[in-house]
Amino acid sequence: MPFARTCIQMNKEAIESLLIHVIGTDVIVNEVRPIGGGNTSRAFAVKSSQGNFFIKTNRAGLVDMFEKEVKNLELLRKVLPSNTPEVVGYGTIDHVSYFILKLIEPGRRVADFWSDFGRTLSELHRVTGNTFGLEYDNYIGSLPQSNKQNSNWVDFFVNERIWPQAKKAEKVLGTEIVGMISKLSDRLPDLLTQSRPTLLHGDLWSGNFTLNQAGTVCLVDPATYYGNREIEIAFTKLFGGFEDEFYAAYSEVLPLDKGFFDTRADIYNLYPLLVHVNLFGGWYVASVRETLKRFV
C-alpha cells in the first residue's frame, strides 16, 4: 500500500485502534489535528479519554528511525526529565510504523526563558562520557548518522560527521569543493580543540525546541551523541533564533572562549550545512564553499 495512502487512512478510528493497542485499555479519540513541518513522517496531535498524545507515522520499514528517536529521548530524559517529552511507545501495526509521545501542552513562556534555556543546556553538557560517539548509530533528520566511537574528537568529527555527508553530496558539491574539504580535514588537528566527550542534543536549532507546561524549554527531535559541546553551540548560531541571554547564562556555567566564536563555530557548522545539502539540494552549496574559503 502506498505510504501516502497509508497516512491518509490514519483517521480517528485508526488512531483509536492504535492507542488501544499501545496503551492496553479502551480509548475514545475526541480530536485529531494534523501537524505539519515534518520532512519524513506524518504527525498528529490527538486528544482522547486517556490523555493527549503526539503521534508520528511512517512506513513500517522505517521503524528504526522511531526506535532511535526513543533511545535519544530516553538519554535526554535521564538528565532533563522536565525538559524532554515522555515516550508512550513505538512499533509497527498494519504496515505502519508509529511513535507516540505524551502531547506537550505549552504554558506561558517564563520571563527569563532564554537564561533558563542556557542553564538547562549547560546541565546536559555537564554529562560526560569516555569516548566520542554513541553505542548505536542514529539519524539527523532522515539521514543516517554514524556514531562509531573514537577517543579522538578531531578524528571523530572528520570521519563520522564531515566525510559521510560530503561523500553523499559529492555530485552536488563538485570536485573543487570536495577537494577543499580534504584540505581542511588535514588542517583540523591544528584548528580544533580537544575536549571531554559531552552528551549533546545533536540537532539543536530553533525548530527543535518548544515550551513545556511550565513555560520553560522542551527539547524535541534529538540526534544524540557524545561530542565536543562547541559543535552544539555553533549550530544554534547557524540559523539564528537564540537570544544573547541564552549564551550568557550558558557561559556562566560552561565558559566559551573567543576562539570558538571567531573560528571553530564556522568549521563545526560545515556538518549541518552538508546535511542540508543532502536533505534539500544545492541551495546550501554556496554556504559550504564560503565557509571553506575561510580556511583553505
Automatic annotation (TrEMBL):
The yes or no answer to whether the keyword 4Fe-4S is present is: no
Query: Belongs to which family?
Result: Belongs to the fructosamine kinase family.
Among the GO molecular function terms of this UniProt record, one is: kinase activity
Which controlled-vocabulary keywords does the entry list? Kinase, Transferase
User: One matching Pfam family, short form?
Assistant: Fructosamin_kin
Write down the InterPro entries for this protein, in alphabetical order.
Answer: Fructo-/Ketosamine-3-kinase, Kinase-like_dom_sf
**Superkingdom of this entry's organism?**
Bacteria
Q: What is this protein called?
A: Fructosamine kinase
